[in-house]
From TrEMBL:
Origin superkingdom: Eukaryota
Name recorded for this polypeptide: GST C-terminal domain-containing protein
GO molecular function, one term: glutathione transferase activity
Organism from which the protein derives: Serendipita vermifera MAFF 305830
GO cellular component, one term: cytoplasm
Coiled coil: none
Length: 318
């Protein structure tokens, strides 16, 4: 289950992501009560899904409430390793059960687990249970579950505001399959047809996003946001894909009609603004982990495991 090159592909060579297994919530009065220090978040800096949860944790000021451990970017035959199994700058060891790999945690809480050993993983240290391993749901948990415990200014930040929910959900419906997962569908396709279907849909969606920004008609110094002129989970979910696009997906996943920096001026500005003006984005973006992970961990795509030096810079200054 942890060897990506042995992932089951569909008959036509297309890649389908399996649904996550642990789907509980942290809520007052529930099995998982919001408590300081009770929950642990396992992430990889390389993984776009885990990266979403890291950004949200920082925006909501949850650093003292939910601890984090970062794994090594070398996702090998046993999946994601902790530093103990593969020392890498920025990677840590598991403080909860002393696991060597993420899969040890999954098998500890469910010995017959037969799903993927994925990050992010939100873990309850009190009951020794996996609470949730679906990033989109962890984002919603972080947005609200701890609001009664954290400072008012952080509690007031709402990344999924009631008034914008319709638009936000509508954006996920096409951005998730064609962009967030679309880059993987391009890169993991094992037939020409499956690749072409995925890459065309991806660039159609990038064109559509650029048009959404164009329709906002802003001044040079204004910041862009995807929905409702304010930062929402839609920006966070799109950012973790777009910040990886030029350094990784353009080459490694063959998403190479054009780059973001030269092909999508407004999306590029949106990206640069988030990265350079919001520390929650920059401080959680680690290009070394990102590039090392993809080019090393998919030997069926890059058998030499050579990691490219470019693009230089990974992200242009504002
Ligand atoms: N549905 C999950 C997907 C997470 C996911 O696929 N993570 C990848 C890393 S980017 C992973 O851990 N893969 C492990 C594997 O394929 O064995 C989410 O959004 O949280």
């Amino acid at each position: 289950m942890s060897d990506i090159s042995k992932s089951k592909m569909e008959q036509d060579g297309s890649f389908n992501r399996k649904p996550s297994t642990f789907r509980d919530v942290i809520e007052k009065g529930g099995r998982y009560e919001p408590e300081k220090g009770r929950y642990h978040l396992y992430v990889s800096y390389a993984c776009p899904w885990a990266h979403r949860t890291l950004i949200t944790r920082k925006i909501k000021g949850l650093e003292d409430y939910v601890d984090v451990t970062v794994v090594s970017p070398h996702m090998g035959n046993h999946g994601w390793p902790f530093a103990k199994a593969d020392a890498f700058p920025g990677a840590g060891d598991d403080p909860v059960i002393g696991a060597e790999h993420i899969k040890d945690l999954y098998l500890k809480v469910q010995p017959d687990y037969d799903g993927k050993f994925t990050v992010p993983l939100l873990f309850d240290k009190k009951l020794n249970k996996a609470v949730n391993n679906e990033s989109s749901e962890i984002l919603r948990i972080f947005n609200t579950a701890f609001n009664h415990l954290i400072p008012e200014d952080k509690a007031a930040i709402d990344l999924y505001p009631e008034a914008l929910r319709g638009e936000i959900e509508a954006s996920h419906e096409w951005i998730y399959p064609t962009v967030n997962n679309g880059v993987y569908r391009s890169g993991f396709a094992t037939s020409q047809g499956a690749y072409e279907t995925a890459v065309k849909a991806l660039f159609d969606s990038l064109d559509r996003i650029e048009k959404m920004f164009e329709s906002q008609k802003k001044n040079d110094t204004d910041e862009y946001f995807l929905i409702g002129n304010q930062l929402t989970e839609s920006d966070i979910r799109l950012y973790t894909t777009i910040v990886r696009f030029d350094p990784v997906y353009h080459g490694h996943f063959k998403c190479n009609y054009r780059t973001i920096r030269d092909g999508y001026p407004l999306m590029h500005r949106w990206l640069q603004n988030l990265y350079w003006k919001h520390p929650e984005f920059k401080d959680t973006t680690d290009f070394d982990h990102i590039k090392t992970h993809y080019y090393w961990s998919h030997p069926h795509i890059n058998p030499t495991r050579v990691i490219p030096l470019g693009p230089i810079p990974n992200i242009r200054p504002l």
